[in-house]
Specification:
By secondary structure, the chain is mainly α. Helices cover about 60% and strands about 0% of the residues. The protein folds into two domains: about 55 residues; about 110 residues, no CATH class. The protein is elongated.
């Protein structure tokens, strides 16, 4: 039979072992958390560097870089970059035609056609230009990202569709009859001061 003090000593050792194990688990958990955070930071840095390097490619590499990503189902709209002598507005104008062929929804739905008078509404013209280039950044070239493409589809396009009818145009414009908004007179673009 063991002396009573020996049995008590064993319980203290057992408790000390549990405390040590719990402390070690806490240390390993903290270490893993630190490693995960560093990996996320590294992924962000690599993604940023990838995007930066894709914008500094030479003209010889540009054709390969500007290819559509695998998830781009339809041929993308042509850009002014496709023909160096083209006016830069061609990129946006071609995107508008492509958008109207691709993203117009059900009759009565929110996804309306961009009307032909879009360039005569300054806020709308600015938003369409940003929509054009954000779509290209998400879907074209080496820096294309399926997450960015999904974000464009989930956030940019529906937000634009909502603002198209609500903020930028008169209902007559959506029906094909341009009507100048009293609060947004047409402006000359920076490309052609004679517009």
């Amino acid at each position: 039979m063991e002396p009573p003090e020996s049995a008590g000593h064993s319980t203290e050792q057992d408790q000390h072992g549990v405390d040590d194990r719990d402390a070690q688990i806490a240390q390993v958990t903290a270490l893993v958390g630190t490693v995960v955070q560093r990996l996320r930071n590294l992924e962000t840095t690599v993604d940023r560097l990838s995007r930066t390097s894709s914008t500094t490619t030479s003209e010889n590499e540009r054709h390969e870089v500007d290819e559509p990503a695998p998830w781009v189902w339809f041929a993308p709209p042509k850009t002014a970059d496709d023909e160096p002598t083209e006016d830069p507005r061609v990129t946006v104008e071609n995107f508008v035609a492509w958008y109207n062929e691709t993203f117009v929804g059900n009759e009565g739905g929110r996804a309306k056609r961009i009307p032909p008078c879009w360039h005569r509404h300054p806020g709308l013209a600015m938003e369409i230009a940003a929509l054009t280039y954000s779509w290209r950044a998400a879907n074209m070239g080496a820096a294309a990202s399926v997450r960015d493409a999904q974000h464009w589809l989930h956030q940019w396009r529906p937000g634009f569709a909502d603002r198209l009818a609500r903020d930028w145009l008169h209902a007559d414009c959506l029906d094909g009859d341009h009507r100048t908004m009293a609060s947004a007179a047409p402006r000359k673009s920076r490309f052609n001061q004679n517009e």
